[in-house]
Write a structure and sequence with these properties.
alpha+beta; Thrombin, subunit H; 4 helices; 274 residues
Length: 274
């Protein structure tokens, strides 16, 4: 165990709860989530890993990641939905880089009512797209009976790399569960019943490779017999992109029933109100 007796600032991975928007051009030399790998041809490899944009006075700005789990349904983090409040939201689909795809307007949004800025549990949200975007397969939502692997899990995100830059590319990283360190570092804020702690420890730098700002709402998946299974939603971590703490994800299985019920209601509302 690599636990540390240190005080750590907790930060949601749109990091810091305040909305962080991105406008600069892509940096083609940047590496990854933090110390991850560029996903070559995201529209082929992981077309369901999408980017969320908010409409501001200065234009449409990237702020969070998400997962397309149906033609019109994107699963993201509750704190991402909260961050933009009443701002119009768009979801980029079909792009291999940021600002290189189709932006579809969001017509409905939802976040789990159990989530609170004062805590970190149940950090899940949904947005419903105006128009459907068809994929051959969508990631399945993990159910309560799924056994989550201890290793060979994969995280995806469009956010910052280890240098604090947003490279404008989708990144991925193979990670393992790091429950013991999460308990030691985050204490009672970390609840293994509703959360997963993951990362990849780098001994030479004494930091975890993992999620960072802008990766909020993005997917943690494990490979199932029929494709990817969405087991986690990027939630929070220690402040800063080079962290000695693992990244924390909301367990999809714990919130699955609530998410499914919310999807049904939002789709019905979107059909009746437009």
């Amino acid at each position: 165990m690599r636990s540390r007796a240190l005080a750590i600032a907790i930060s949601a991975l749109a990091f810091g709860m305040s909305l962080q928007l991105w406008t600069s051009k892509a940096d083609s030399n940047a590496m990854a989530i933090t110390y991850g790998h560029e996903v070559r041809s995201p529209t082929r490899v992981a077309p369901w890993a999408v980017a969320l944009f908010a409409q501001t006075r200065a234009g449409k700005k990237f702020f969070c990641s998400g997962s397309l789990i149906g033609p019109r349904i994107v699963l993201t983090a509750a704190h991402c939905v909260d961050a933009v409040k009443s701002l119009p939201i768009y979801v980029q689909v079909g792009g291999d880089t940021l600002n290189d795809g189709q932006l579809i307007p969001v017509v409905k949004r939802w976040r789990d009512h159990r989530y609170s800025d004062l805590g970190t549990a149940f950090d899940t949200g949904l947005v419903i797209l105006r128009d459907g975007y068809q994929l051959q397969n969508y990631p399945a939502l993990a159910g309560p009976s799924l056994r989550v692997q201890d290793s060979n899990l994969t995280i995806y995100g469009w956010g910052k790399d280890e240098r604090g830059h947003i490279p404008g590319i989708l990144k991925s990283l193979v990670v393992g569960q790091e429950t013991s360190d999460a308990h030691a570092i985050f204490g009672r804020l970390f609840s293994p019943r509703s959360m997963l702690a993951v990362g990849s420890w780098l001994p030479s730098r004494e930091v975890y490779a993992g999620a960072c700002s802008g990766d909020s709402g993005g997917p943690l998946v494990q490979l199932g017999a029929h494709g990817p299974i969405l087991i986690g939603v990027t939630s929070y971590g220690a402040e800063g992109c080079e962290s000695r703490a693992p990244s924390i994800y909301t367990r999809v299985s714990t919130s699955r029933a609530t998410i499914v019920k919310a999807i049904d209601r939002l789709l019905r509302l979107s059909r009746t109100t437009g």
